[in-house]
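hiii so um. not sure if this is the right channel but i have a protein structure encoded as tokens and i wanna go backwards to a sequence. like what aa goes where. can anyone help
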């Protein structure tokens, strides 16, 4: 049996894509709220902001990145073409927890300082979201297509088993993020979300 036949299409990659979509919805929602507060179009909803930051700390850092690291490690010995990308992505995974903590601290400071703390939180949040989008884009453009080609069926079996333990990225463990996604859907103007169109 060939080790890279298409019918071994790895379900782990579908899980990752779904996790990226859910993370993108939260990151987009965060950037949207921050920009609207900045423009004076929205009053801060600290509970919503805390829930978004909580999601970012829970899902990507604890569940998503460790599984991707396994795929990166399996790819390393198969090609050197991706070394530069893998170096960057692994370094970004290592820095993810401190980056999330910095975002969390900036939010706490904003909560405590009120409007005076907004500028620092805005800058931290927008740089965080922009870095995350670049990171996910690099993975989707360069890494996962190569992984699909180069990993063996046995390796996919191992990775898939690992990914099957992930919780639903749109709900989280114990459905704790279901409300967050409902709120996010209401934020964005139609047709993206369900909220009222804005001019
Ligand atoms: Fe990643
Ligand atoms: Fe990722």
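sure thing!! here u go:
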């Amino acid at each position: 049996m060939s080790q890279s036949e298409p019918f071994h299409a790895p379900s782990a990659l579908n899980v990752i894509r779904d996790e990226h979509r859910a993370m993108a919805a939260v990151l987009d929602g965060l950037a949207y709220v921050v920009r609207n507060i900045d423009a004076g179009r929205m009053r801060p909803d600290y509970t919503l902001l805390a829930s978004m930051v909580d999601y970012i700390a829970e899902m990507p850092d604890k569940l998503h990145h460790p599984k991707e690291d396994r795929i990166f490690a399996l790819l390393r010995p198969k090609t050197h073409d991706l070394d530069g990308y893998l170096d960057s992505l692994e370094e970004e995974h290592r820095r993810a927890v401190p980056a999330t903590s910095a975002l969390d601290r900036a939010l706490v400071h904003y909560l405590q300082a009120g409007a005076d703390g907004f500028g620092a939180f805005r800058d931290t949040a927008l740089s965080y979201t922009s870095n995350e989008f670049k990171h996910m884009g690099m993975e989707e453009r360069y890494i996962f297509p190569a992984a699909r080609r180069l990993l063996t069926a046995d390796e996919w079996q191992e990775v898939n088993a690992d990914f099957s333990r992930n919780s639903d990225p749109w709900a989280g463990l114990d459905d704790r993020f279901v409300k967050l996604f409902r709120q996010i859907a209401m934020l964005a103007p139609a047709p993206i979300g369900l909220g009222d169109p804005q001019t």
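oh and The pocket of fe (ii) ion (ligand 1) is lined by residues 65, 68, 89, 93, 135, 139 (CB under 6 Å).
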